Amino acid sequence: MQMFDLSGHTAVVTGGNGGIGLALARGLAKANANVAVWARNDTKNSAAVEELDEYGTGRIASFICDLADEAQIETAMAGTLEQLSKVDSCFANAGMGGGGVPLSEMTADKWDPVQQVNTRGVALVYSHVSRHMIDRGEGGKLIVSGSGQSIMGVNRNTNYAASKAAVNGLTRGAAFELARYGITANALLFGYYETEMTGASNNRTGNKFHDWMMQRIPQRRSGNLAELEGVAVFWASPASNYITGQCLPIDGGLCIS
């Protein structure tokens, strides 16, 4: 359908060189969008660009960006505008796990980095992107990769859950504040997908985390990354224009189990 052709659309995907971020970027590229991958690993960035270049007709670029460093966010934004001219949508996907730390053993050095990347980093990305969108005057889309852990409990991950709960509040606040400029903001609360982050949890628990999740998810399976390609296109497209301020679980029913 015409509404799902993103020719001429430019999207930023933070953490777009692997896992959920790369899956989102694939969908955007296949729909002919220009895609800017912001991520920390130059080798993985180059591999992502090489792959994404094979899809669609859009231009693909990558930029080194650690969300803990605002200067790198600013540089990535400037590079994106220089190479791709504009940003129509931003998928704030980059984040870090909580490390499996029990609350009784939590320390500032285990708490602060997670908040710095998962919450502050998203806010700063949104600050730079929304400033451009406001100045440009043609609206835009802000979509963050949240987590079902923001609305349900999981052992040994309070730092991560808290960071993602804060992102839900950020989403609602941004939606209210930016609506006057035609900018929407939404959070996708992802459930269990097999990525490097969940792999680390399984390694720590001897795969008990995976087994526990399979028992709780009504669909009895992990998420399929390929299914996220269409999700990305929907949120970048005009089909989602009247949706804002929402925190939508994408989890096979995990949050209702």
Topology at a glance:
Blueprint: E1 10-14, H1 19-30, E2 34-39, H2 42-52, E3 60-64, H3 70-84, E4 89-92, H4 108-136, E5 140-147, H5 158-178, E6 183-190, H6 196-205, H7 208-216, H8 228-236, E7 247-250
Parallel strand pairs: 1-2, 1-4, 2-3, 4-5, 5-6, 6-7
Helix pairs in contact: 1-8, 3-4, 4-5
Could you describe the 3D structure shown?
By secondary structure, the protein is of the alpha/beta class. The protein has one domain (2-256): Rossmann fold (3-Layer(aba) Sandwich), CATH 3.40.50.720. The protein is 45% helix and 16% strand. A seven-stranded parallel sheet has the order 3-2-1-4-5-6-7, sandwiched between helices. 44% of the residues are buried.
> What name is given to the CATH topology?
Rossmann fold
Task: Give the rounded overall mean pLDDT.
Answer: 95
Quickly count the helices: 8
Number of strands: 7
Strand proportion, as a percent range, falls in 15-25%
- In CATH, the architecture is 3-Layer(aba) Sandwich
Topology pattern, helix = H, strand = E: EHEHEHEHEHEHHHE
Low-confidence stretches: none
From the N-terminal CA to the C-terminal CA, the straight-line distance is 35 Å
CATH class: Alpha Beta
From the alpha carbons, calculate the radius of gyration and give it in angstroms.
17 Å
Into how many domains do the coordinates divide?
A: 1
What's the CATH H-level homologous superfamily?
NAD(P)-binding Rossmann-like Domain
**Biggest sheet: strands, sense, closure?**
7 strands, parallel
Percent helix:
40-55%
- Oligomeric organization of the protein chains: single chain
Tell me the strand order in the biggest sheet: 3-2-1-4-5-6-7
Structural class: alpha/beta
